[in-house]
Amino acid sequence: MSTFTDSTGREWEIRLTAGDLKRIKRTAGVDLRDALKPGEGDFTAALDDPERFLELVWALCGREVNMPRDDFERLFDRDTTVAAVAAIWESVWDFFRGARAGPEARATLLAAVEKVENTTAEILHQAAARVKAGPTSSGSVNTSAESSASTTGLSPSPN
After folding, report:
1. 156 in a structural domain
2. Around Cβ 148, how many Cβ atoms within 10 Å?
3. Which residue among 3, 28, 51, 155 has the highest number of C-beta atoms inside a 10 angstrom radius?
4. Which domain covers residue 46, as residue numbers?
5. CB-based burial of residue 12 (10 Å sphere; 0-12 exposed, 13-18 middle, 19+ buried)?
6. Are residues 36 and 96 in contact, defined by beta-carbon separation less than 8 angstroms?
7. In a domain, 159, yes or no
8. Which of 13, 65, 53, 14 minimizes the C-alpha distance to 155?
9. Strands 2-5 and 11-14, how do they pair?
10. Cα 142 versus chain centre, distance
């Protein structure tokens, strides 16, 4: 079981069960059985698509939601989304590999998730600074190859 906190301070539990797998695949189009396999799959694609991501979170949290879906989705600001991603990664890991992989492997996964969170926060900070600095003499917002390169590979690879 993992948790994340939404923008209002409410804590949500992510506890993946065998019964959830089929429902999540049907409703969110995400096959969580492939989430820990290397490469791009349904899960990593959902992380890059806000609508699919919210569909996934709704499928995981929906049974404990006592509000309209639109209200639930409005709880997801940047920090909530980052926390929900980490909680989902942790739950998937615990469900599929936790007992077999052991505590050291779990610690490695959580360290990777933290690195992704920190990298994402830094990228957003740099982008905000470039926007705040305004356009360059050519009239475009300053972007660099270094910042573009740092955005690749944000999904943790728990291998």
Report:
1. no
2. 10
3. 28
4. 2-149
5. buried
6. yes
7. no
8. 53
9. antiparallel
10. 27
Classify residue 11 by burial, with Cβ atoms within 10 Å: 0-12, 13-18, 19+: exposed
Establish if 157 belongs to a structural domain.
no
**CA gyration radius for the chain?**
17
| Contact assessment for residue 53 and residue 86, using Cβ atoms and an 8 Å cutoff | no
How many domains, the chain? 1
| Residue 12: inside a domain | yes
Residue 20 and residue 60: Cα distance in Å, rounded?
Answer: 7
At which residue do the structure tokens 């309209």 appear? 68
Candidates 117, 10, 22, 128; CA nearest to 64 is 10
Q: Please, which residues have CB within 8 angstroms of residue 58's CB and are 6 or more apart in sequence?
A: 27, 28, 65, 69, 72, 73
Mind listing the pLDDT tens digit of every residue in the chain (159 residues)? Answer: 889 999 999 999 998 888 888 888 888 888 888 777 777 778 888 888 888 899 899 988 877 788 999 999 999 998 999 899 889 988 888 888 765 655 666 566 666 666 666 666 666 667 667 777 877 665 655 544 444 444 444 444 444
Place of tokens 């609508």: 51
